[in-house]
Amino acid sequence: MVKKETHRKSDQRFLVLLGGGESGVGTAILGKKEGFRVFVSDKGKIADKYKQLLEEYKIDWEEERHSEEKIMEADLVMKSPGIPEDAPLVNRLRGKGIEVISEIEFASRFTNATIVGITGSNGKTTTTKFTYHILKNGGLAVGMAGNVGQSFARQVAETSVDHYVLELSSFQLDGIEDFRPHIAVLLNITPDHLDRYHYNFEEYIASKFRITKNQTEEDYFIYDADDAVIDKWLTNHPIRSRKMPFSLEKELKNGAYIKNDQFVITIDNSQITMPTSNLTLEGKHNAKNAMAAATVAQLLKIRKATIRESMGSFQGVEHRLEKVLKINNVQYINDSKATNVNATYYALESMESETVWIVGGVDKGNDYAELLPLVNEKVKAIICLGVNNEPILNAFGNCVDLIVETRSMEEAVKQAYQFAEKGDTVLLSPACASFDLFENYEDRGRKFKDAVRNL
After folding, report:
1. DSSP classification of residue 135
2. Mind listing the pLDDT tens digit for each residue in 166-177?
3. Which of 53, 74, 101 is the last residue of a domain?
4. What percent of the chain has pLDDT over 70?
5. How far apart are CA 385 and CA 380, in angstroms?
6. Which residues contact 57 (CB under 8 A, 6 or more apart)?
């Protein structure tokens, strides 16, 4: 891979950060290091830990307002992924010819490390952590960032590694210009965040495919060959990078598939096989995540023995099909990270016993129809956990005999305890965002685990 030249230090160009969270403050630190004059502006409150960092690095900041006159003097603006692309302030900045980019774009301009970028509607965190786990075990100097851990920008500012594994959301990809991962991974595409994309699924698909925007013939694109949405897009929009598909349904000349209970990964004339039983994670979706991670590792020349060992030692991700406790022979599973229908589909698909399902939250325009066959087959009771449970009641009211509404995690878990019998599973897999009753999906997952432990 031909390395690009990093940008030279700025002659006191003015960098403005919209948003004082992890990505904003990380970018501020990197900007300061690279010689920019830096200003952080947040319309809300900035957390104390970030204020301390800004003070420590002597970075100018404001909270609970945007001083527009000052912001409009910027040479370059990095906006937080949470701020929509068409926010009025962003439109005014662009109207004035000021470049507005994402943290991922900014940080990538100041590193020569090889970048592995991982996106998809579901499985990003698991696959990112899995890939990092294998590469680290393989002895590479590797960092992990994006939507997990410390921001990419801060890591570029404070550490020196040869490789980065980045978990990338569509929001982060919307703000790229020159960002070019050597290896891009697209796990799947299902409707999500459509409120951000004018309820236009095609816009959301295009956003995910931005990960390939700057790739060349020297780069690689790993993707799910079973995903009809991805397949259709690739038919109509050729990409330049080398395609490395993975599949559960077909054998592939180049790429990864499963045959006779063996993972088979072929890259040109190099092949690795390993028993699927090696994998500690359960479910078809995790088999796909594992194939994607192992393909990255093989492309980066990690030893086959290390890949095999890492498959067996990776323990998964908190809040993603996380086994909490078994009480009276009932297994309690925390899948709070399932914030959309497709993630919950994977969770229900992997259930092997009668299931009491805790579901609900902020509905992002969900279509629950694809869950109906699984609910009919596996779910004995539904516990709604949200401020507005009407969409769930309407979708599943005729499917199960037991369906109740709750307004707190403690109440939901107590109801689940009442409904569950020996051999059953209680599954928190909300299919919705968490912001009606919780701070975020982590808070929701922790409260579930606390409530289960308090039974």
Report:
1. H
2. 999 888 998 889
3. 101
4. 96
5. 16
6. 28, 29, 32
